[in-house]
Model the fold of this input.
Amino acid sequence: MVEFESYAIRYKENASVYHTTRKNTLDIKSPEYCSVAQMDYISGYLQSFENAIYAADGIDPASGKHYTDLVDLDSLVNKYLIEEVSKNYDGNSSSMFFYKDRDSVDPLMYAGPCWDYDSAYASYAREDNAKKVLTGKNLWIGNATGSKYWWPALYKQKDFYEAMTTRYHDAFQKAINILLGLENDD
Done:
């Protein structure tokens, strides 16, 4: 299990932390003490993913792999929609988890589990956060600016965008309408 964390100071003393070429901090949560081979493997794997999502065609120029060859598209779409719908203040910068089994079990990595929604659900929303996040207007996660954020890079990928809009209309929109009282749960 790996945690994406843009605040490097939080994990400076953890045993298995590294930085991508875009200066993102990734903290290996399990195993807590990676072997050199494990660290080399997962850091290379995630670097390939990061390279691919920033490439116009979604393919890492170094490995030749499309980002969907590395990470399960359905889990990315679901995680993105949860971040966006909840207006998670930390959605692009902190507490973003991924997990990967051995290649012999499953060659793909998955986005999740979902974690750390204190800001999104107002238990930590400071006034400045509330002005940006809690208004309910516009995209929060997909429209973020900065060279480090993964979700806006994915949002620009045509196949991700198409899968995301389909999932939103097929699953999320009805649930949101029910929560808002705009539709009955029949």
Q: What stands out?
A: The longest helix spans residues 158-179. The CA atoms of residues 52 and 58 lie 5 Å apart. The two ends are 38 Å apart (CA to CA). The beta strands are 2-5, 17-19, 25-28, 96-100, 109-111.
